[in-house]
Structure formats: structure tokens, C-alpha cells
Queue: 4 jobs
Job 1
Amino acid sequence: MALAALSDRDPIPCGEAEGLVWRRNRPVALAPLAGWFADAQDMAFAHPFARFPFDAEEWEELLTRPSPAFFYADKDGVPFAHFGLRPNDDAVHLCFLVMDPARRGEGLARPLVRLAAAAGRALLPGSERMTLNVSTGNLRAERLYLSLGFRRNGWAEEGMFQMERPLGLQPPWDRP
């Protein structure tokens, strides 16, 4: 099933990887997402053009667009992160990634990115790469993605650079 073809009439796609579950954010649920932006910088790292504090109407409009498709990541039945996936040439593009600040430091970031990759492989079979944009200055995210095999491949929008890696299981998603 192509990601761009997902509609609200389709069964809600979901999947599992490493004990985590991804599920489509349909019907759109703004909570708990609304509480995950502690400050303007948190908001800018997830959505550089969004207004802070969280604007429910703005996010409702974003989350109801046909692309990207948005997902919650759950651990033990509790959402801890939210992300979007969209087709991008021969790639799946990971976007609008945000994690519950109360769950940071629990070792969930690497499994979360691998979970998003599993969702991308399931929803966009044949995609060869995963791409994502990182805000300049978000060194924590850049280090995470580098440790998972992503490499810089150019500039995206103003204040952001793009990273990519093969979408398959190899090379390994963690460096030894």
C-alpha cells in the first residue's frame, strides 16, 4: 500500500518493532502531542514553522493533510512519540518527529527511529532510503542519526540540513 494512498477509510495501519508499536493517528488525536512541547525550541525542532505555544487548530490542519501520514509510537500501550512519513522519490521521509520530554533519557530514541523505518518499509515497499531534516543546532538529534548510519546529504529548508541512509536492514542501524 503506498503511503500517499492511505485514506481514512482504510484499516488503520499499525505494526511493531522491538516491543514498540506504531499506529496511524486516525482519527486525529492532539493529546498527548499537545503537551510534548516544553518550549519554543522543542516546537521548532519538530516543526520549524509552527507557532508556540501549541496551536490546536494549526496542528489539526497539519495532521489532517493526506501527506505526510502521521503516527503515534507506543510502549506498553502508552504513546511516547509522534512522527510523520511521506514518499520522497525513492525514499521515505521521516518528519515532524517529537518525543514526550518525560520519556527522554530512557533509551527509546534509537528504537523509535528503527520503528519509523519499519513503518516506512511496510507502507512504502520498494523505498531504498530514509531521509529526514535536522534543524541546525540540534546536535542531540544529529548525533543520534549519525549513530544510526545516517549521513548528511545537503541542505533542506532554511536552517535545516538533510540526512539519509539506506532503508534496508543493512548497513546495521547501530554502529558497533
Note: DSSP finds four helices and eight strands in the chain.
Job 2
Amino acid sequence: MRVPLFRSLFQPPTTIYPRTGVGAPRTRVRAANKGSRMRSIYRLFALAMVVWVPTAWSAPALVSAPKKIVLIAGKKSHGPEGNGIHDYAWSVRLLKVLFDRSNIRDQVRVEMVFDGWPKEEGVLENADATVVLSDGRDGDKYEEAPHFANPGQMQTIRRQVERGCGFGTFHFSTFAPEVYREEILSWSGGYFQWETEGKRPGILRSRCWMQS
């Protein structure tokens, strides 16, 4: 009789009771000897190899590299650094500490940029996300946010977004002139509108536009 593989591997050794004579009691004899045990061990080893070999030879699981986040702090405009008012450098440092102490600290790598723009733009070229914390132009007050400061910086951010880099703005850097309306909507999905018909209204109304 053919015994299934798993049953033959794991069932206990067969016990038989031969008679030594008419009416004699049965004597317990173990049929499984050393040779049969070794065959069972070989079969078990072969089964383990069948399971293990495909796994061992398969491609190793890819470990994704940490996501790179670049935080850009704008220039200080409201008093000295450390006074807690529009303190972008401090805000960027705080965000980095929060990331470094979070439960995703092994999944992200945060780099900080100060004074409004990186000295070497290469720091942005492999970023997975870029976030700006800065002033923004409010009529004739303050400066444009760094990403609107000049055509070159506009083009740099445009290139990053087009390759798939995320882009976000905090606080005053959400202010955008109407000429860049479509650009900022496509970049970050929203902006703060301070300009009406090319001018700043006498009473600035909080109006945020979001991409639908």
C-alpha cells in the first residue's frame, strides 16, 4: 500500500505483534529500525530543501531609501532672530527635531536650508519633498516667497515638481500674486490671495484658493 508523503514522514514507527506459538502472547517488536529512520530524515530534509531553495534564490527584498525632505527657511524680517515672530529658521529647526524624534525617523532624511535659498541648488535635485517657510509679498510690503523671487528660482522649483517632487508652503509663503495663480495651484494645490485686480485692497480679506 502506498503511504502519503506527510504521513510516511511523521507517523510513529509501526508496531507489530508476531506470535511465537499457538496461544502464545504477542511480543512487541518495533518494525522501524535505524535504516527506516534515516530514510525518513532524508525525506524530511528533501522536503525542507523544496521549500527553502526557491526562497533562498529569489531576489532579496528591496529596502527603500529614506525619503529626503528639504526645509527652506526664509530670511528673518520681523525683528531679531529668536524673538518668536516670523522666526522661520527656528521653525525649520523645530520641524527637523520633530521628524528626528518621530516614529518615521528611519524613513525620512531632513535637510535644512537657511536665508531663503540653498547656496547649491543640487540639494533640491534629489529631494522627495520641498517645503518653504518664509515671508511672502503683501502688496508693497515684504518680499516675494523664495520660489517666486526670480525666474531662475521659479524654474528650479518647476523642474523639481515636474519630476515628481512634492512642494508645500507654510505661513506667509502661501501668499502668491495672481500672475502665478495657475503655477502655485499646480504645485501645491492652494495659495493665499492678497491681490485684487493687481492691487492690495485697503482691508485684506483672508481668501484661500484650493485646487478642485
Note: Strands lie at 15-16, 29-30, 67-73, 108-113, 129-133, 166-170, 175-176, 190-193, 208-210.
Job 3
Amino acid sequence: MDYKYGKNDNSYHYCLCRCKRMTVRDRFWDGIYQQYHGRLLRQVQKYLPTREESQDVLHDLYVQLRHRDVDPKEVENPPAYLMRMATNLAIDVLRRNKRNPLEFTDPADISELQGSSNHYATPEQISSDRQRLDIIASAIQDLPPRCREAFLLCKRDHLTPGETAQKLGVSRNMVEKHLRIALKHCREVLARHEN
């Protein structure tokens, strides 16, 4: 059989299953993977900035799942098991690339992914969190241009202070000073709006 699928294509997983004799375990895990693929992708995208990286992580998850040959009877909650595997793989990618897992996420997405826990964000909490994010976004825009650029490179683009310094042509100490100023400014603006 000659299949030509990209590894970021869901049909790749179908091809992988068809090309190798599937056991009962393989079919079980393949079904769970396919059923929860959308949620797994959203979970991984919380950590990784690009869809391509997230798809690569899901591909790695699928391959590892097939090679581990885990008995589903030994796993109490198979979807949660896959979520944990996906999260761990995403964090491994961040570590390999020396990036900070800090991200800016829509509170509604977080509450949806926490659906298996007993805590649910209320519409009021989501609205309040979105307002806080808007206030912080406005505070970031108020920063001096160089300070804003350093802050966004570190916090949004996940660069280290050293990488940011190199990119901006300044010292690491200057980047750290910009970060302190930016964080202090954001805290002060947020405090003024909350009081």
C-alpha cells in the first residue's frame, strides 16, 4: 500500500492503522484518540503557539500510544490519560525549545477544558476575566515602545531574556529592567481598575 499523507493530516492516523495489523487495544486507543482529537488539540494549543507544533505533538502522542501497548483495562480514565500524555508532550516541546509555558488564554477556553473537574467558571467570572485581560492589553499598549517590545517577546513569544536581548541588541539586564517596569505598570493599572 502506498499512502501519501502528511503527518499533520488526520488521515495519516487512518493510514498508520491500516498499514499495521491492529489489535483490540490498538482499535480501542485509536477510537479514543479520534473521539477526543479536538479536545486534545485545544489542550496542546494552550501551550504551543502554532497549530503545526500542536499537530506534531498529537502525531507524537499517537505514535507513542501505539508503541506503548497500554492495556485499557489498566487505565481508570482513558480520555484523561490521553490529555495528560498530550500535556506532557507539549511541555517537553517547550523545554526542548527553552520556552516559558506562560500564555494568554481566553478564560472561556480554560473553563471548557476543565469540564471534568467540579469547578466551572460562571459567565460572570469569564466576563470579569475578559475585562481584566482587556485592561492588561491596554496597559501593555501604554508601555514605552522598547519596553513593550521586550515584554511581548518574552511573555507572548516565549523568548528568554537572553534571546530577547540579542534580538533587540541590548543587554540582558536591560531586558530584565523592561520586564520589571512592564509587570509593575500592569499590576498598577489592574489595581486602579479593581479599586
Note: The chain has ten helices and no strands.
Job 4
Amino acid sequence: MKNLNKMLVFSVIRVMCLVIIISTVAFSQEQQEILLSINSVNTSGKLNYFNNGESLRSQNKFSSAIEEYKKVLGPGELCGKEANAHYNIALCYSWLGKVDIAERWYNDTINLYSENTEIVAYSKFGIAWVKTKKQEFETAIDLYNRLISKKSNSDEELYSVAMFQIGKIYLIFLKEPEKAKQLFNEILSKYPNANIIEHPYFEIIKN
């Protein structure tokens, strides 16, 4: 009887040891699988992804550019281009006509990089542009005006284009050419060196 009990005890111990070994091996395998699945990217790799996105965007390959920019935002070291990548994704979605997705990315960019005044300003412009595409003209005008009045960015071209967009809304969509003419004259006065003044719409001032 004692021998039988001893055999049972030894059997239980062997089973427990086997379970521990199997669990340890399984845990090690899981760790390896996790490490493989979240393999990080260094700064150099992130910059390569960003530059690929820039190249694809310049070729109007917006969907492919988005995929590259998203890799910049993936796991790994920071490369200093995260805010630009986030904004450029929104921009690409805008050009693809996916305005709802673009608007979400613009808002995310503003929330995530609130201290980057340049990116925030351009993202706010992007949201106003999206509102125009959605034919929410009064909202778009209000957003453009708030952007212009705050002037958190040194890029005067941005503000001249924002003012131009308001004039364009009045001229094309709201059919108020006099308000458009007033805004175009204001652009000529405030931003005489802006590239936007070469736009054909400024011809209405001469008429």
C-alpha cells in the first residue's frame, strides 16, 4: 500500500513538472510572437517612410502615400516628422475626396500636436476647406475668419489664401460678387506679394 502511495505521489510530481515545462515553453513562444508582431522601427526607417510618402504624394498617388505616412506613426523611435505625417494623411484624404475621414485626421492633428502652431493653423485651414466641400459655407467662412484673426503662424501666404477662399465662397457659391470684390481688394492691400493674387478671379476687380 505504501509503495502504491509513493508511486502515485511520484506520478503527480512528474505531471506537475511536465505542466510547468510546457507552460514555460508556451510563454517563451508567446513572448517571441509578441516581439515579432510589434517589431519597432528606428529613426532612419521612419524618415525613409516619410520621404516615400512625400514622393508618392507629389505623384498624386495619395492612397499609397497614406500607407507610408501611417508607418511613420507606427511603433518605434520618434523621427520628428509625426505631426507632418499626420497632417499629410488628412491632406491626402482631402484630395481623394474622402472629406469625412480627412476632417477626422485634421481634428486629430490639432488635438495631438496643439503646441505646433504651424501644423494647427494648416489643419484648421483644412477643416474650413472640408466644410466648403460639404457646402457648409457659413461654417467655412467663420472658420477661415477665425484663422485669419488669430494669426498664430508667420506664413502670410496661408492667410491670403484663407481670405481668398472666403471671397471664392461669396463669388461662386453665395453669388455675392461685391463681397468677393471687397475681399480680393483687401488681399491686394494686405498681401501684395502673395502668390494667390495671380489667380484669374482677381480679374473681377478690373471689371
Note: The two ends are 116 Å apart (CA to CA).
